[in-house]
Amino acid sequence: DQQVKQNSPSLSVQEGRISILNCDYTNSMFDYFLWYKKYPAEGPTFLISISSIKDKNEDGRFTVFLNKSAKHLSLHIVPSQPGDSAVYFCAARKAAGNKLTFGGGTRVLVKP
Amino acid sequence: DTGVSQDPRHKITKRGQNVTFRCDPISEHNRLYWYRQTLGQGPEFLTYFQNEAQLEKSRLLSDRFSAERPKGSFSTLEIQRTEQGDSAMYLCASSFLPGQAFSSNSPLHFGNGTRLTVT
Q1: Of B1, B70, B93, B116, which is the most exposed, with the fewest CB atoms less than 10 Å away?
Q2: Does A53 contact B at CB distance below 8 Å?
Q3: How far is the alpha carbon of B80 from chain A, nearest alpha carbon, in Å?
Q4: Is A92 left (phi over 0), alpha (psi -120 to 50) or beta?
């Protein structure tokens, strides 16, 4: 049972344009959501997070939006840069929980 | 480098052999997690420790897997009688949980993983 899904396995975008990554979840007990970025041969690195009491969190070029009623979150990267080319994972944690449940990832390629 | 360190980076072993991986977390972090990632998938939770206590184990962690964190610092993950299906990237992560809190919003910091290939 995949509780966190990233339905787009890959995304290609032109440098300078916006990248939009989507993530859906099924478990209404999730209350904290994170995005991680992963380069080849490296571990995932934390990018940005959002609590379920918010619907938007922004950090520089990265903004995460949360739609609780739709059980959907998205990550916007603007403007996209070639260094953003990586695999992006969304993850979710249950209230008072201690482990993260990850989606399958979306590979982003930013073309110069 | 004060990040999470994992050793070895790569391990090739024959089916049926035992393997052990080591993880050194960020020094002030009291929580330590093991995840497994197979090709094309996201990381899957295996187990986690609060200091030296193993507080949760996934059903993915069969009897052939054992993890320890004897002094609340580094951790080891041992796989006995390896099978080809054990081939994966094994990721360690750490975080800090303040005081008596049971849960926190501090993100996990991952190491670069150990890639296991069972032939």
Answers
A1: B1
A2: no
A3: 24
A4: beta
